[in-house]
Design brief:
The chain is an alpha+beta fold. It has two domains: 63-259, Penicillin-binding protein 2a (Domain 2); 265-298 and 334-660, DD-peptidase/beta-lactamase superfamily (Beta-lactamase), CATH 3.40.710.10. Helix content is 35%, strand content 17%. The strands form six sheets. Strands 2, 3, 4, 5, 10, 17 and 18 form a seven-stranded mixed β-sheet that branches. A five-stranded antiparallel β-sheet has the order 12-11-21-20-19, sandwiched between helices. A hairpin with a 2-residue loop joins strand 14 and strand 15. The chain is elongated.
């Protein structure tokens, strides 16, 4: 049966009502949206308008860190020792590069030298923050810089600009005392954590260098300065499109440091040493100012500024003359016969009669062994023993006084001390006595804590356990020359224009008459017949004379009964040559010590060098110049100095004494 069609009727009013409801609903939603949008716009434009205006400016403008110029280092006369010079460099901004290898390949076509440093560049890129540029090449020639500048715009992320680089104008003359700067290491970075944010950001700058040794390290904070900021306008990709000088902040340069050193005297010391190994230290005996403190051979600190190659560093490290070792402060040596001045002074301080005589026949039997002397001096008193440097006399003098009393006087004159001169690296050396030996050997060799009688004669001639550095020996002779005050060395004259630690010296607790006795004997060392420096220690400056004491310090064990001459041996087996001096002898003003490592005889190796350095200091002094009158200028010309044997050579080590422990003696080899 077919279905019947059905008809559906709708009410027109009902449809109209549904439509009206929908219109009102949609209209309400739109109205609410417009109201919310209007409110949000009001909130953003009016209530937070200033905030977003600043954010917009921050997107448009940026601050680039500007490292401050490092402070200069001058000598006492204003001569520039370390400063800054213009330098051209090429950097790569990794946040603008898609493929670093492709970019480096393009740069290598312009600068072929970057091929050899590619591994270093990639390492630096990985270590640096992505926003920090990485240096590809520095200290470029003008020709290379021009080529890079021409093509830099065609290589994304490559920037060529001008920078400042640390420069050391005297090469190796000040390499140890002034030190050098180099790129900051991760170890340095860890030490700097926790400091001001601006300081920490400066450490990441590609041109920043930190002090690694000497003055550069000790006063790095003063020399560093305060970073500034350069306001630049950037595009959406962060590229600089313009500079805004109004909003930039100028960096504050580091403080300048003035040293007490004299560049002329320092350079003269380096010249007279040539390729020989050793050190020279000179002081003003009244102020304590250090005029010269060299370590030879030195190294060129400019090599470390940009980064020294492994091969170059290995050459410095492996060279047997050890240019990286500071022989003025770090290396210590037996003082040899220079120590006899203090042994004699200790004897006088403890009631020893200077007229006491001993006869030297070249040997001194004591206990189960025989000690030797390099000459047969005959019968001598204390004055004559100092002048001729008789070992036999001082063996017996030391036995009469004892090690404890000798050590006490030696310490009064600065031996065994570390001085506050502003830089580190000093070793105290050893001034032995019975308490020292017991404390040192108690854990190492419990059966060898006693001071054996056979150890005292060796101490009397500056051998055995006794070890000093060149600065200490200079301080000792400076105090002898002063005679009243315990002079302390000073290396820094001023920082940022302000005087640095100008302190009063304590009185020297020694009888002035005893000091005068030793000084008179030292004067005869260079002027009296038989004096160990009589042939090589004359200044040829008219009435100006030099007083001193030679020394030859044993560097190896002599064969029993054999010769103690060592110049025919290999360099490392030769004795060390010493000379300590002050001048003028009649009115002392300057004191110095010279050590020539493995130099052989003190009189033939150390004295001529000390003579030339002392002449330079005296000829520069206006007051001394006035005394050099009625002197033929031809007499002031350097004259060849004849070499001769030195009677200071030490005897072989006492077999009754334990050998000096290797960790308390550093001969700088």
């Amino acid at each position: 049966m077919a279905a019947e069609p059905s008809l559906v009727f709708t009410d027109v009013n009902e449809r109209q009502g549904a439509f009206t409801r929908r219109v009102f609903l949609m209209g309400g939603v739109v109205a609410f949206g417009m109201f919310a949008l209007t409110g949000r716009l009001v909130h953003l434009q009016i209530l937070q308008g200033s905030k977003f205006q600043k954010l917009s400016a921050a997107n448009q403008f940026n601050f680039r860190l500007v490292p401050p110029p490092r402070g200069n280092i001058f000598d006492r006369n204003g001569k520039l020792i370390a400063g800054n010079r213009p330098s051209f460099r090429v950097m790569i901004e990794t946040n603008e590069i898609k493929n670093i290898d492709d970019t480096l390949d393009q740069v290598s076509y312009i600068l072929p030298q970057t091929l050899t440093s590619r591994r270093r560049i990639l390492r630096d890129i990985n270590q640096n923050q992505r926003s920090v540029p990485t240096i590809i090449a520095s200290d470029l020639s003008w020709e290379d810089f021009s080529k890079v500048s021409l093509y830099a715009n065609d290589i994304p992320g490559v920037v060529a600009d001008r920078d400042e680089m640390r420069a050391y104008y005297y090469g190796g003359a000040f390499s140890h005392v002034v030190g050098y700067v180099a790129k900051i290491s991760q170890k340095d970075m860890d030490k700097e954590k926790g400091g001001p944010e601006g300081e920490f950001n400066l450490l990441h700058h590609p041109s920043f260098r930190i002090g690694k040794s000497g003055i550069e390290k000790a006063f790095d904070r003063d020399l560093r300065g305060t970073a500034g900021g350069k306001k630049v306008e950037v595009d959406a990709r962060g590229r600089v499109v313009a500079e805004d000088g109004v909003g930039s902040i100028a960096p504050v340069p580091g403080k300048d440091i003035v040293l007490t050193l004299d560049a002329d005297i320092q350079q003269r010391a380096i010249d007279v040493f040539g390729q020989e190994s050793g050190s020279a230290v000179m002081m003003d005996i009244e102020t304590g100012e250090v005029l010269c403190m060299t370590s030879s051979p030195g190294f060129d600190p400019n090599l470390f500024v940009s980064g020294i190659s492994n091969d170059a560093y290995k050459l410095l490290h492996d060279y047997d003359h050890n240019p990286l070792l500071d022989k003025a402060l770090t290396a210590t040596y037996p003082p040899g016969s220079t120590f006899k001045t203090l042994v004699g002074l200790a004897a006088l301080e403890n009631g020893f009669d200077p007229k006491t005589t001993h006869t030297c026949n070249g040997v001194f039997p004591y206990g189960n062994r025989v000690f030797h002397c390099d000459d047969r001096h005959g019968t001598l008193d204390l004055h004559g023993a100092i002048v001729t440097s008789c070992d036999v006399y001082f063996y017996q003098c030391a036995l009469a006084v004892g090690p404890d009393k000798i050590a006490a006087v030696a310490r009064k004159f600065g031996l065994g001390q570390i001085f506050d001169i502003g830089i580190d690296g000093q070793k105290a050396g050893v001034v032995p006595d019975q308490a020292w030996k017991k404390a040192y050997f108690e854990k190492r060799q419990p059966n060898n804590t006693r001071w054996w009688p056979g150890e005292t004669p060796s101490m009397g001639i500056g051998q055995g356990y006794t070890n000093v550095n060149a600065l200490q020996n200079c301080v000792a002779v400076a105090r002898l020359a002063n005679g009243r005050k315990a002079v302390m060395p000073r290396l820094i004259k001023s920082i940022g224009g302000k005087p640095y630690k100008d302190t009063e010296f304590e009185d020297l607790p020694v009888d002035p008459a005893h000091i005068a006795f030793v000084r008179a004997a030292m004067a005869d060392v260079t002027s009296a017949p038989g004096g160990t420096a009589a042939r090589s220690g004359k200044l040829d400056l008219g009435p100006i004379l030099m007083a001193g004491k030679t020394g030859t310090a044993q560097a190896h064990t002599y064969a029993a009964g054999g010769s103690r001459a060592t110049l025919h041996l290999g360099w490392e087996k030769r004795d060390h040559a010493w000379f300590v001096a002050f001048a003028p002898a009649d009115a002392p003003k300057y004191a110095m010590s010279v050590i020539v490592q493995h130099g052989g005889w003190g009189s033939s190796s150390a004295v001529p060098k000390a003579r030339e350095i002392m002449r330079m200091a005296l000829l520069k002094d206006p007051e001394i110049q006035k005394r050099i009158v009625a002197v033929n200028p031809a007499d002031l010309v350097d004259k060849p100095i004849s070499d001769g044997p030195d009677p200071d050579s030490a005897p072989e080590s006492d077999p009754g004494a334990a050998p000096p422990p290797p960790d308390i003696i550093d001969n700088g080899v």
